Structure to design on (270 residues):
């Protein structure tokens, strides 16, 4: 992966929060994922195939997703199904939007959602995964990008 | 008073289906059905015969482009608004070639969706 790849994902992530919430999110300095797990309460995973291969996931706390879902739906309460659906949709939107840069050969899967603290999300062993910290309001989440 | 526009919403995300419904609620529409995958969308379309369909592309069972092909065989006059995260031009062009009349890239604001909807009805 090149630095420009990370920029595409950072731009896509910032645009998501900007458009959906009308509030700016911030991204921290990306780092190479170590053996340590990067998993919060809910994780939305997208498989990538075609010209590039790998996977992308976003993981977030329940509190963040509840706040986000309440804001998006303009409702004071949201269901667990809404929260699970939302993390998948964020992963789908961030990954789908980078096709503006990569083109239609950058194929994305439907999202897979993991609820709860899995040990870790398995990534290809032979490809470096990069972690992009995201802060929205006071909540922290992580986007993990692993592309050949 | 004219008949409401019969709308079917196709998206594998329930949040997106709710959002589309919320944003378009102010118009003279009747939501006749929702589908969360491509295959169900075709089956529902055959029964419900909506005037307008909002169509996601990346979905389980059958992708949105294939669904467009199938439902236009049933009703070539149906109006289709694609609502997708896929932001590349070639997918937009492909959707239009297959008969979509409008292409909205997620994430969308209320205004973005409403403007596309109003233009589609004109």
């Amino acid at each position: 992966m090149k630095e420009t790849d990370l920029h595409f994902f950072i731009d896509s992530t910032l645009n998501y929060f900007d458009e959906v919430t009308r509030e700016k999110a911030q991204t921290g300095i990306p780092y190479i994922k170590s053996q340590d797990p990067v998993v919060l309460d809910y994780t939305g995973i997208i498989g990538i195939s075609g010209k590039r291969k790998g996977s992308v996931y976003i993981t977030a706390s329940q509190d963040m997703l509840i706040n986000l879902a309440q804001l998006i739906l303009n409702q004071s309460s949201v269901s667990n199904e809404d929260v699970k659906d939302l993390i998948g949709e964020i992963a789908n939107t961030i990954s789908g939007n980078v096709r503006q840069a990569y083109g239609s050969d950058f194929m994305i899967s439907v999202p897979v959602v993991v609820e709860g603290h899995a040990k870790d999300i398995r990534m290809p062993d032979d490809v470096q995964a990069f972690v992009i910290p995201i802060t929205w309001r006071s909540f922290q989440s992580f986007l993990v990008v692993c592309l050949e | 008073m004219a008949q409401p526009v019969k709308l079917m919403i196709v998206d594998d995300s329930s949040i997106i289906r709710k959002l589309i419904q919320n944003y378009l609620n102010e118009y003279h529409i009747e939501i006749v059905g929702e589908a969360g995958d491509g295959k169900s969308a075709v089956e529902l379309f055959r029964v419900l015969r909506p005037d307008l369909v909002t169509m996601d592309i990346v979905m389980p069972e059958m992708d949105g482009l294939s669904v467009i092909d199938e439902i236009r065989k049933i009703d070539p006059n149906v109006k289709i608004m694609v609502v997708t995260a896929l932001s590349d031009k070639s997918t937009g062009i492909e959707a239009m070639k297959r008969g979509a009349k409008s292409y909205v890239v997620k994430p969308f604001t209320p205004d973005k969706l409403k403007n596309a909807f109003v233009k589609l009805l004109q």
